[in-house]
Structures
1.
Amino acid sequence: MSRKPRRSAPRRFNAQEFLDSSGLKRTIVKFPARRAVFSQGDPATDVLYIQDGAVRLSVLSKTGREAVIGMLGPGDFFGEGCLAGQDLRMGTATTIAPSTILAIEKAEMIRLLHDEPELSDRFISHVLSRNIRIEEDLVDQLFNSSEKRLARALLLLAHFGKDDTPVRDIPGVSQEVLAEIVGTTRSRVNFFMNKFRKLGFIEYNGRITIKKALLSVVLHD
């Protein structure tokens, strides 16, 4: 009795490979750390995709107060507000570390979302995940201590939760930048970073190495 050939698992869509494909109208720009990719009030003309590095999203109030509303890494889209009718950027995107950013013009992105179902699914998943993360960030800012907020920021920068990797490196992020992300002082960040290192949750070696055990700080009540 003949056996039916075993079906291979469907190939997971790789957004990076697709966006790197020939024929796609795009611009690739390399940014040093702490450089604005776009600023609040700039024309919203394209959608951006992080190939490498890290970006923080922030909003400046009329009184000059800045609030960090998101941290993104490789594989994340941003600037998608232009697809929903935004003529001007509602916030500022700043690199946390040296980053390679791919920019896709609005019209080209709309065409891709219509013509490429797999990319459309990936993009929708990204937008929904971003909305969930923004809600979690708001809860974090309202109810958690600066120690927990720092631990969560480090875990997000290391992209924990996407798989079971026990240890991850993140780009060299200064304590000043971490203080801005967390909403506290550099001295407090330095205190908690030293505490995390003594507890074996992180390591310094040119880059910051984050261990999954740091989750205990976030989960502990």
Note: The chain has seven helices and nine strands.
2.
Amino acid sequence: MVVAMGSAGRGFAASGDATLSGTVRDVHGTPQLGALVELLRADTSSVASALSDDHGRYILPTVNPGRYQLRATAAFFVPAFRTNVRLQPGTQAIVNLTLSAMFEADNWLPAQRRRSDEPVDDWKWALRSPASRPLLRLVDPETGVEMSSSAEQARQVASRGRVSVTNGDGGFGNGGMHQALVLDRSLGDSDQALLRADVGDPQSGYAPSPSVEMSAGYERRSRIAGNTRLVTSFQSHPELTTGAGVGYGAGLSVLQMATTHQFSLGDLVQIDAGTLVAAEKLEATRLQMEPYVHVTARPGDDVIVEYRYATGRQLQSAEDLDRLKPSLSVLTDAVGRPLTTRGAHHEVSVSRKIGERVVTFSAFTDRFSHEGIAGSGLLDKAALQQVSALVDPTTGTFQVATAGYAGHGLSASFMQPLTPSLSAWAEYDLGTVQQMALGTVALVNLQQNLSSTLASAASVSVRGKILRSGTSLKAQYRWQPARTLTQVNSYNTGVDEAFLSFYVRQRLWCGRLLPKGMDAVVAATNLLEEGYQPVIAPDGHTLFLAQVQRAIQGGLAFNF
């Protein structure tokens, strides 16, 4: 929306100059702190720039009149553009920009669950829903009329899309080449619809047809009833097999539906609740429900207290729905029947904001009905009939199921901003894990050689964006004892976080050689192949188990 107001010399702009201002928000209406707003000429050279404040507002006070482009960029957001911005002499133009998070359309970079110490989580420190948050208001000095970015206006429709081609990262269920299409449709009343389709090329000799993943999401916002989100997804992986199948190609199908609802009790408490319903089909069909509740309260201006209850690791908050690509976490018994992965996680955390720094302490208890451990190396049919494993022959990986366990732990984290768009994190976790006995053991006797024990984990990371180059990145090293086969504090740790990992997304600027909107992405997990433990398969071959396997992925995406 562009609103021009005549203000000849009334403090907005000097005679002959123009002033440009506005606010930067995400698609949920949250003001974005530290967004870089640039005014560009037709040749994309910069005329002026500014950073948005903690209310998302920016201002470019003295600009030569003319026709320009406006661009807003922020860490892990798709850049927002506004073309044909006309500035008249002695006037002020108001241009409000909306940033769409890359994770909201596709997990183009592996998404990490949003934590209370994330710098983009300003809404937690205000504890107001996007629907009830005060919006930017300006007053015309000539008429005294109040102009608001939330004024009633005709519904506007904005559509965005992305086509990407990437190699599989070599991980379980993600082999071959993948072509993905993402469509994002935002309405003027803040409703939003998303669609994602991903087709993986079949590998000769393994799968009779390609793997298919489809997701669709819808969000409805209400000032009175709060925000409601719905995401449905379907996955078909004919390349996956169990020991009960006839050769390779027994196949896996998963249908999921997730719903969440957020609402506030005044300015002090926010409640986020939802449920994930999943139907999984292997040699049999299993239906499972995983509800969660997340309550956030602010007893003081710089203190936040949170309570979380979750029964599954896929859906623990409404923000988890930003990852439209569902994870593949199915476990099976020795005859091919899906096993329940439902557990219970209780957590209480306290966060304190000290200037720009955020310190968080939490205590948690966990219970797992079954646990899955990643492995690498092919299992033949005879070996599969003796273990509870689901095999992906395309990538030479498998998931073996073990009995559940219970545990507890403590966690502490510290966040320090380095620049307005780049921050450093340090985290320490102490919790219960499953650990393998020393030496090489037989895979069929794995359960007898596992024990639950307390273990520590520590991580350091740098996340955000380098504004000069337009590079979004996350570099991390997470350490925990090598013999541990499950993550410490696994309800708060992503499945792709272990040892040395990095993720980089770079906008490509090649003049006329490449179209605008082209991105390149490289992602590497457990780059040094640490933490691998040898086991012996029933056929005598040596396999390896690891809490997180090494995986490398890269590709290109075109945004339109």
Note: The first strand starts at residue 2 and ends at 6.
